[in-house]
Records
---
Amino acid sequence: MARFEIHTIAPDNTQRILIYDNEASTLTWEDGEPVVPYAPAVFADASVISSTAPGTKGLIRTLKISLGLSCNYACSYCSQRFVPHAENTGPQDVADFLQQLTASVEAPPGRIEFWGGEPLVYLKTLRPLANALRELYPAAQFSIITNGSLLTRDINAWLDETGFSVGLSHDGPGQSARGPDPLDDPDRRDAIFDLYRRLHPKGKISINPMISAHNPSRGAVQAWLQARFGEDVQIGEGAFIDPYDEGGIAATFHTPEEHARFRRHAFADLRNGAASRFAIASSKVLDFIQSIREQRPARAVGQKCGMDRSDNIAVDLKGNVLTCQNVSAAAQAPNGEPHRIGHLSDLKEVSMRSATHWRHRPQCPGCPVLQLCKGSCMFLEGALWQAGCDAAYSDNAVFLAAAIEFLTGCVPVFIEGDIPPERKDVFGFIQQGTSDPPKKRVIPIQAVEAVTP
């Protein structure tokens, strides 16, 4: 059990202390009174996978199909940038893949995702594959994420008619980290807005930015996107990046001051509505509130990506089952295990040894944002995992603070518990150089006003 004293500032500038247990999902005032009435729910235990307790696959609810890792862009923080490519596949592989799939699945998948690289690089494969899958599974949700640079009006019409939901990758004012802005090219801009006009009224398109040290403000991203796509733009993704290589590490924060500054600004964006179009803003806050109301135990918390679940599966067109859609059958996980974890033709033999559940990470069980973070990337190790952990802590501490203020009206400023000193001072309001909680002093209201709309 990990128990935390959360020191907060109330609206009247008095200090109040909350007690939070991340294992049992309880949040009480200092006298033991629950912040909200509990309505405990029944939860199944998550699979605690590792190289010695491998994960399995069974009934497929979400099917992620990797068409390949080729892309016409070169994002500086791309998770696939240095992943070795597996054997090329093409339209000639579609029939065999479909035969393997239909022979293996016990029930129609509810969701099918088509992944690259840039999936539209593989259009000659994507079209016959998606058309056939739509005939096989007419009720399945189809989704694709694209950088938008290869869209045409013909492709747009097909995506619309086939029933795709589309995530358009764009970092707004930080787009230079991805490459050229397709909105600067008249033809590409025309195609992007044609698709947007088709799908936006149906709620089937979002603009998907990533947050990084070079693009840290959700408020700035939202303003940029609203100026081009309208006030009601739906913004997907929106989390701080996971670093998968040196480029990713370069796009994270490196000092406690940088982390604290990000948390201050990100919290202010939440409080003043500047990040209101980000789906992640509401989903994270509501998920934490729900965890408290239903007392979701930590044992029920799986990995954030969901790929540790037995009913979520990533495959390539050769039928290889993969750790996730961002790797290939030719790649090796940082723990030395292959990312090829089995084959579609023999799902009962799939064995995911390439991932590590958060329960096996020393820092995760005793972390106050565990219920929000859910363990960061499940296959990173070493310095990359640590950098990702640090970034995920800062990002999720903001959502934790927003959820607590929503529930109590009080702003968390200090978390007392067995965590690194630089993580205790939520917004950098406490005197630098001390890890002591502010038990006998009140944080100046001017400090809290720094994150007040």
Note: The two ends are 36 Å apart (CA to CA).
---
Amino acid sequence: MQRRHLFLLARAAYVGVVLLATLTRLDFSPDLGAAAVRLSRAFTLSLEWRDAIDGLRNLALFAGLGAVWVVTSISGKVRQEVWRSTLWGCAISVTVEGLQAFSPVRTASIIDVTTNTLGTLGGAVVVAMLITEVVRSRGARSYLGIPTFLVAGSYLLATISESLTPLFRSEPVKGVYGGPMVRLRAMLALATPLTLAQIPLSDIPLYAPAGFLAVMWLAEAGRDASRGWRGVAIVGAIGAFTLELAHGGLGVIIRWEGAATDALSLAFGAWAAARWLPAATQAFRGASRARAATYAYAALLVFWGWRPFYPRVDGDAILAQLTIPHLVPLESLADRADVFSALHVTQQFLLYLPLGALLAVWPLRKRGWWGGLKPALLLAAVLELGHLVLDDRFFDVTNALIAAAGLAIGWVVLRRSGYPVYGESLPG
């Protein structure tokens, strides 16, 4: 298949995902009178908590459209593609909201059109800026053959999303209503007493790499890692406690034990980079370094995807995961009126983008089953299928699709920015 056709297919596939996510359970009604009433209601501005959450989800979903549109540009004229993608995002959004006017169970809104359009513009602009920085860094000093800021930045943003909406305590506390300050006071009252049982040990292997990558980023930029790690540790601690405090405004339980664990883990990772990064770069060079980085990052994805590794043995519970809400993109998150439902999509994308970028210049194999993105796509599929037999996790095709999008965009950005394929990372 020619590159042009492949890029057009990618755009069409993402538009299909958007339409599937926004038009599922439409219960279409041809009543023109009722549709006119709903359409006029769409221009009534009303901002409630659920509207804000819907806006965040719309921004995340359509940001992906803008990102995909820019990286699949045939002409390579990024600025034109930014505006073109925004117009398409607006047109798709108007179409979706117009069809929702014919639904007695969906609510059309001009606010949704606005957030969808802004999301498309934001995603396109961010990717355009990313491409500019990646191109600018071509030929510069690099530990992995790709800019470390691409890996470290994506991973740090993923951990920020985790800090703001932790996977296993992201549900708002029931019975707590009111504005952010009311919720914050209620959550602060529930934050004590401190207990050892609330220490999230599973956060340690997630946050330590964030500190390591941050120092690696500084070192690649020419900073002194032996001093820089302290700054990373301080900023990480401030961020961990600030984000934990932010839970209160969202109505999510505050656990200072979690903030302390995350801060100490990040500090340890930063210290470890300052201590061992120079020796590691001497011990691993070329393909061996790329292979070690690929394996280490894949192991991280396994931990992110399968924690806390509790098996599910109930056959009925396993079969219950194979239902329509789990097989339709974003359907399982549709009924959640919380920030997690928006940030989870972004986090999954950010986690997989660095692996796609790394495989763009250091594929396991240049051809065959282990060539290109196939190993990473297989990993994403296996991790998601593993949720069927893991307790406290649930299978959702959305995760696999977002992972594939992150991998593909990371790969395309590096290849289209002129980075060469250095070689195969697997030994001959």
Note: The chain has a mean pLDDT of 87.
